[in-house]
Amino acid sequence: TMPKEPAVLRQNILDTTAAILACGIDPKKCFLFRQSLVPEHAELAWILGCLTNVQRLLRLPQWKIKRASQNSEGTVGLLTYPVLQAADILLYKSTHVPVGEDQVLHLELAQDIAQHFNKKYEEFFPVPKAILSEL
């Protein structure tokens, strides 16, 4: 949600890929891809954003904390980031999502968005459940 120099962004992508591979993820068994190359993420985020209440996003603690660190000038990208996260989850019809305690409210937003979408249109998205780690 913060502007990055293109060279730094490219290096971050390579570093993240290296970390994933170093953790033992086998690309022969898993499909690795760069999310930014899949336009459906942004397209679904737009659709879900049109169904999401702004007041709900403004109440999320991460918005308040990060906005404060940006001298009260939070961006639209920062505000709508949880909707993009919901799109990332729902696009693949995920049923279970590993999250840390700090992301539980964002997953709850994804659950609410899925339920709202399903009620308004038809049963389409599974309502994802959290997998919380002991660590």
Q: What's the layout of helices and strands?
A:
Blueprint: H1 6-22, H2 39-49, H3 54-58, H4 61-69, H5 76-91, E1 96-99, H6 104-120, E2 129-132
Parallel strand pairs: 1-2
Helix pairs in contact: 2-5, 5-6
Which shape, going by the Cα principal axes?
globular
**Alpha plus pi helix count:** 6
Report Rg.
16 Å
Determine the mean pLDDT: 91
| Amount of helix | 55-70%
CATH superfamily of the largest domain: HUPs
CATH architecture of the largest domain: 3-Layer(aba) Sandwich
Residue runs with pLDDT of under 50 for 5 or more positions:
none
Largest beta-sheet details: 2 strands, parallel
CATH first level of the largest domain: Alpha Beta
CA-to-CA gap between the ends? 27 Å
**Under CATH, the topology of the largest domain is which?**
Rossmann fold
Number of domains: 2
Keywords: Aminoacyl-tRNA synthetase, ATP-binding, Ligase, Nucleotide-binding, Protein biosynthesis
Organism: Grallaria varia
GO molecular function, one term: ATP binding
EC number: 6.1.1.2
